[in-house]
Amino acid sequence: MTDQQDSPKPLDSETVAAYLRLHPEFFIDHDELIPELRIPHQRGDTVSLVERQVKLLRERNIEMRQRLSHLMDVARDNDRLFDKTRRLILDLMDASSLEEVVSCVEDSLRREFQVPFVGLILFSDTPLPVGRSVSSAEAHQAIGGLLAGGKTICGVLREHEMKFLFGEAGSEVGSAAVVGLSYQGLHGVLAIGSADSQHYKSSLGTLFLGYIAEVLSRVLPRFSAPLRSVR
Predict the structure, then answer these.
(1) Residue 119 needs a FRET pair 20 to 30 A away by CA distance; which of 28, 76, 193, 215 works?
(2) 75-85 burial, b if ≥16 CB within 10 A, otherwise e?
C-alpha cells in the first residue's frame, strides 16, 4: 500500500489578495499570466489588468491635476488679496486726516475688494465730523455680543445687528464678517456684508480682514482725539 500525497488546498481570494499586496512585482516576474487575467468592466465587458491599471492611474492623474489647479487658483486669489491689502495699508499709513482714513477704508473695500456692504462705525461720545460714530454704550447695547470675544465673527447675524452695522441696507445683507477695532482700547467696529447668506461662513478665513482691522486700529487714534477708548 503506497502513501498518497495530500492534494494542495485551494487558496481563498483573501489569501491571494494579501499575497499580491505584499508582492506587487509578482506580475513582472510572471507576465505570461497577464493576458489570462480578466476584470469585469462597469459596462459588462472585460479588460486586462494592465488596461484596468492604466484606467485607474489616468483617473488619479486627472484628480491630482484638478486638486493642483484648485490650489493654484487659491494661491492666485490670495496673492491678489495680499496686493489689495498692501495698497490699503500703505494708503492708511499715508493718510493725514480722519476723513482720509475713513475714505481709504470704505473706498478700497467697495472698489478694490468688491464688497457690496461696508460698515465702519467709530465709538465717540461726541459726533465726529466724518463717517459714522456712536457712543460705546449704544454700540454695546446693540452688538455687545459680537464684540465680547475680541475675534472676527462671521455668519448670519440677527436683524437688529445687521441694521446697526449697515443702516437701512442691513435688510439686504444675508451674511457678514465683523471685527472690533481694538488697540489699547476698543475704538470702533468694521463690518463687511454680502447678500448671499452662505458667503461669510463661520469657517471663512478672515486673515486679511484681521490685518486691515489691526492697522486701522493703530491709525485711528492719531486723528481722532474724541474717540472713546473702551477697555
Answers:
(1) 76
(2) eeeeeebeebb
